[in-house]
Specification:
The protein is mainly alpha-helical. It has one domain. Helix content is 76%, strand content 3%. Strands 1-2 form a two-stranded antiparallel ribbon. It is globular.
């Protein structure tokens, strides 16, 4: 299983890096939009929509939202910070609320168990993530920031996986994701803290005014958000009675099983970079 996961992860990493290097901003935005659409298809099942027509309409609704915000925020040109920052703040507030839902599960399910609320949760997870990721492309150097985001999330995941396997004893959220432990959590955070030091050393000349403490704060907060994203989707999967969101990715499950952490990390990273003066 681990070998299959590694092979799939390497293939995804290669495709992602190729897209960042060779595609223009609009091309990357389109590719990310297609991924969000595929994620919406998987989420529609988790939300409780069973008919293919209903699931297709949900995907179209999510994609329509992407088109509207792409045009409204001028994401194809130079989006204005004053417009995008409040939306990023709302997205981060949503993830703070999601953490409370995870902590309160299964009691909290009474608030979101119905199809309408779970459908709304999917929109709050997917659409702001796409906006944040595309917005990051407007930062210099945009594509590299997307790579950094993926590396941070991967470091948190890998650090948690191996530390948890070796030292894990105390469950992090046993009713949501029984395999996760506090030891693994702190292993992931430690890995990202060390990574933040490396990132600080690699900062471009134009960002020398950003101190190590700021880089560490943004990196660790992004890692924390990725954990919340993972747990939130795991919570909905558990309530829906499924282990994976799909079977598209061998060894990983569905696309959402890989996007969940990134969906939470993207708005947190984008807002963090704005707040530290990138």
């Amino acid at each position: 299983m681990l070998k299959q996961r590694v092979i799939t992860a390497l293939l995804m990493a290669g495709l992602f890096l190729s897209a960042v290097i060779y595609l223009p901003v609009s091309g990357i935005a389109l590719l990310l939009g297609l991924l969000i659409g595929a994620g919406a298809w998987e989420w529609s099942s988790l939300a409780g929509w069973q008919q293919r027509v209903a699931r297709s309409l949900y995907v179209l609704l999510v994609l329509a939202a992407l088109v509207v915000v792409y045009s409204y925020f001028h994401l194809d040109d130079l989006p204005q910070r004053e417009q995008v920052q409040p939306l990023l703040g709302v997205a981060c507030l949503w993830w703070a609320c999601a953490l409370l839902l995870v902590q309160g599960y299964p009691g909290s399910a009474v608030l979101w168990r119905n199809v309408v609320m779970r459908s709304a949760m999917g929109i709050l997870i997917l659409v702001p993530a796409w906006i944040a990721a595309v917005y990051l492309l407007s930062f210099p150097p945009g594509g590299l920031l997307l790579v950094v985001m993926v590396v941070v999330v991967a470091a948190a995941d890998i650090g948690a996986y191996f530390t948890g396997r070796r030292f894990g004893k105390h469950k992090l959220a046993v009713l949501v994701s029984p395999a996760k432990t506090w030891e693994g959590f702190w292993g992931g955070i430690t890995a990202c803290t060390l990574l933040s030091v490396l990132l600080w050393f690699l900062l471009p000349q134009r960002a020398v005014h950003i101190g190590l403490a700021s880089v560490m704060a943004v990196t660790v907060t992004t890692a924390l958000a990725s954990v919340v994203g993972d747990l939130t989707v795991s919570m909905v999967k558990r309530e829906s009675g499924v282990k994976d969101s799909g079977s598209l990715l061998p060894g990983h499950g569905g696309l959402l099983d890989r996007l969940d952490s990134l969906c939470a990390a993207a708005p947190v990273l984008a807002l963090g970079l704005l707040l530290v003066g990138w």
